[in-house]
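We give this protein:

***
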Amino acid sequence: MKKIIMISLIAIIAIIGNSSKMITGELNLEKFEKIRVDLGIADLEIIGSNNNKLFYSYEDNDKIEYDYYVSNNKFNLIESKRAQFFNFYTPKNEFIINTYYDQEYMDIKGATSDITIKNIYSYKTDIDTSTGDIEIYDSDGEYIKIKTSTGDQELYETTYKEIELKSSTGDIEIERTNSEIIDLESSTGEQEISNTKTKKLYTKTTTGDQEIENTQADIMNLRTSIGEITVKNSNTNKLKINATTGSIYINLNNNPETIELSTTIGEIMINNLDLNQYKIRINTSIGDIKTPYGNFEKQFEYGNGQKTIEIRTTTGDIILK
């Protein structure tokens, strides 16, 4: 019992001992058009502004040190000394970068960091974090790539030529965004896309639902292993969806040239299509096929239209309305 009490007291003392005074301030920065950030424990904001400054607030201790400077037209913010052992106490360290210059690229890495970017143009943006949420608002550029292990990702009112988002555990949300290519991949987490326009949309989830709403894409290619996929009030020319275990629900504003849907276990429902424009082929091993032309088992073929609908399931009902 004495050993347990002693260990607990040491842990409490260690936590209290880690509470140090904060170093806060601001620094005027010379012109820079590149940003490099490598943080361990600190949150980061990069904001388009009418000034060029760094605002900082971090704990004054001997376990963590930061270097920040401009060199060769690049602003560097580096956590040069990091705690090398498990710590019960996480300091609330924060950096805010204000800039009125367009950026050639932003290279941002963080171990435990929430990252927010607002009103910034960056030709290329690359973000890689272990734990932390990523939020991008009112920003644009050519290429943006985000990778997180644990944390949500959100893009709102952005314009990028190519968007690539990957997450191990965390949700991905895109709203009011314009792009030529959107490529999303997550292991565990939901994906939501709304009020967005792109030429090509690719999504992939291992475990997680996908919802596409009020979105226009010439090509939609959506995949999930375990999860429900919903596409509603959207426009596309080519729609391809594959689900291993999960239902598929489609309600489009237009009549795509091709629709190809497949699921191993799950229901498939399609609403609001002019079926007379299509040549339809449906196959299911176990499940009912319900159409405006009657109910069928295992197989249904209809029409001679120029457009095509092809649906395959192993176990699950298929409904055309």
Confidence is low (pLDDT under 50) at residues 1-17.
